[in-house]
Specification:
By secondary structure, the chain is mostly helical. The chain has a domain at about 460-595. It is built from 29 helices and 4 strands. Strands 1-2 form a two-stranded parallel ribbon. Strands 3-4 form a two-stranded antiparallel ribbon. Helix 7 crosses helix 9 and helix 20 packs antiparallel against helix 21 (about 410-425).
Length: about 600
């Protein structure tokens, strides 16, 4: 059997390297004896073409349809493994949807249009996420049928369109899985045919609903969809996104997770011609975040790098002006930083200077800095080399973990995490991240490791104990030294528990049981503390997504504590808790989150 091609990640910002890496990693986990030739035959291409598409030196790329078939191969080869073991099988097509611009015709609508009445005339709400995605696919197929005008279809299915859109938004805001991405793709597809209706519902969700902060991801999908320039939807989208983003800064104060900064990811994806140099409103949006005194280090780093990335599309004068602007911001931020973020501020400045000096849009190759924390990170990364990951994937895995921790451009940092999750070799990766959480003295670095652990969704005993211990330790730090960084760390740790275990009910109950003393203490402490509203919001999110069925007549812990939080003085915490109590606990059972639409 030929030796697999080494998967090097030359560009973290480009889609091809990360997709190749994920496919190669999935292929490596197929049953022993499965050859590339067998996979190529199942994919209906030649083995030579398959090898070329896996080669980092080739300009060939896997199509969306090929990735869909590959996912089918990976899942079929996994056999009858339990659902928890299938969590990291497949997903390459969803990864591609995250990192590639979408074509306006990219959909998941495989349902024949004639099935639509059967899917949509029943007033019974969908029981599962798969039923919801099936309904949305059938509706989209009806819109795309050439024999029907979309306006007639919208008139016929106006109410189902509203209901499905609201449910897709909530599914998109649930703990992260590939189904979240499928929901957002379908939502974007529906917006092409029912733009005013979908965007009205989407904006309402962003501005008013508890999980609305994640609805920004649907806006990113709409912005990144390739359409004809003269398309009517494109003109309407440009005007709508302008209004939404330029009035977004106050929404940060009501977000469940402001440091997630998904509105900034929308700004990064805005096409240059939508925001011309002489009136660059996107730069103004990003600059405001760098000047917001409440913004986290993650947000400021993302905004500063995004300003530089966008300047790469501009004139020489624009780039000179942006260089001066960023150097001034770096000097201001580095003048007298709080000690808990001083090293992080220096690192943001170092990576930004590196990008500016090399005239490159990002930092594919991160610079070296002579500090203890940086040496400790690279020492921890050697755990990848010692792991059982196949040799041809070790260099790429190491680089992806490095970027998950040290990349300051937010979209690229999330891309690294998504690629690691899709590749499937998450156990050795979570061991590296857990060592950072346990051993690092840098709050900002522990926060990044915690975020990655949440999104990798590997419910091992090590991850369970690491996240539980991180919540307890962060609370102790907050009590001893209350400041924005320690509050941000506890908030991130609580969210990581919800994101990691929110789709694994059995494990979620165990982890929540370990956290019960802390959760009770937090709810009691924060009952009248508006200054720590972020902690109450994170606790409410954790309790909502890890809710368990009743044991007899006794209310579940989540039901009990959410009832207390529903009276919290922070309006967003109270709203989240009241919302969850209104639908989540039905006759002692737990209903899916999208039922809350």
């Amino acid at each position: 059997m030929p030796k697999p091609v080494e998967q090097l990640i030359r560009s973290i910002s480009g889609p091809d390297d990360v997709i190749r890496f994920a496919v190669s990693a999935q292929v490596s986990q197929l049953p022993e004896g499965t050859t590339d030739a067998w996979v190529a035959k199942a994919l209906k291409i030649s083995s030579q073409e398959f090898s070329r598409k896996l080669s980092p030196n080739s300009d060939r790329a896997f199509t969306d349809d090929e990735l869909r078939r590959l996912d089918q191969i990976f899942v079929a080869a996994a056999g009858n493994r339990p659902p928890s073991a299938l969590m990291h099988v497949g997903g390459t097509r969803s990864l591609a949807a995250r990192v590639r611009p979408l074509d306006v015709n990219t959909t998941l609508a495989d349902s024949p249009a004639e099935w639509t009445p059967d899917w949509l005339t029943d007033d019974t709400p969908p029981r599962t996420e798969f039923e919801l995605l099936g309904q949305a696919s059938a509706l989209l197929a009806a819109f795309r049928t050439p024999s029907r005008a979309s306006r007639d279809t919208l008139l016929r299915y106006n109410r189902p369109t509203r209901d499905i859109a609201r449910r897709l938004i909530v599914l998109g805001g649930s703990p992260p899985t590939s189904r979240n991405i499928d929901a957002l793709i379908l939502l974007g597809g529906l917006a092409n045919y029912a733009f005013p209706l979908i965007t009205e519902i989407l904006e309402y969700a962003i501005r008013t609903t508890p999980l609305g902060f994640r609805a920004w991801r649907a806006v990113s999908k709409l912005v990144r969809t390739k359409r004809p320039e003269r398309d009517e939807t494109t003109r309407a989208l440009k005007a709508w996104v302008f209004e939404l983003l330029t009035r977004a800064e106050p929404l940060r104060g009501t977000s469940l997770y402001p440091a997630r900064s998904l509105d900034l990811e929308v700004a990064v994806n805005i096409p240059p011609d939508w925001s011309p140099e002489d009136e660059d409103w996107v730069e103004d949006v990003l600059y405001k975040r760098t000047q917001n005194p409440d913004a986290s280090l993650r947000e400021r780093g993302t905004a500063m790098h995004a300003i530089w990335q966008r300047a790469q599309h501009g004139s020489a004068d624009k780039q000179r002006r942006v260089k001066d602007l960023l150097r001034r911001i770096i000097a201001e931020r580095g003048a007298d930083p709080p000690p808990e973020v001083a090293a992080g501020e220096r690192w943001v400045a170092t990576t930004l200077r590196h990008a500016i000096d090399s005239d490159s849009p990002g930092c594919d190759d991160l610079p070296t800095i002579d500090e203890d924390w940086h040496r400790a990170v690279h020492k921890a990364l050697k755990g990848v080399e010692r792991s059982s990951i196949p040799d041809h994937l070790k260099a790429g895995t190491t680089k992806l973990v490095e970027h998950a921790l040290l990349q300051n451009a937010g979209a690229e940092r999330r891309r690294a995490v998504d690629t690691l999750q899709t590749g499937g070799y998450v156990d050795p990766v979570t061991r590296v991240l857990a060592s950072i959480v346990q051993d690092s003295d840098e709050t900002w670095l522990r926060i990044r490791a915690l975020f990655s652990l949440g999104f990798l969704k590997h419910p091992s005993l090590l991850v369970q104990q690491t996240l539980v211990d991180a919540c307890v330790a962060a609370h102790e730090r907050l009590v001893a030294n209350p400041n924005p960084s320690t509050m941000n760390e506890l908030h991130t740790a609580l969210f990581a528990v919800g994101d990691c275990f929110g789709t694994s009910p059995d494990v979620a109950g165990e982890v929540r049981g370990l956290l019960e003393p802390l959760l009770r203490e937090l709810v009691k402490e924060e009952a009248h503390n508006e200054e720590h509203a972020l902690i109450a919001r994170a606790a409410g999110y954790l309790l909502t997504v890890t809710a368990q069925p009743r044991a007899g007549a006794t209310p579940d812990l989540s039901e009990e504590l959410l009832t207390d939080l529903s009276h919290h003085p922070d309006s967003r915490t109270a709203q989240l808790s009241t919302w969850a109590l209104g639908f989540r606990f039905a006759d002692g059972r737990i209903r899916p989150l999208f039922h809350g639409a």
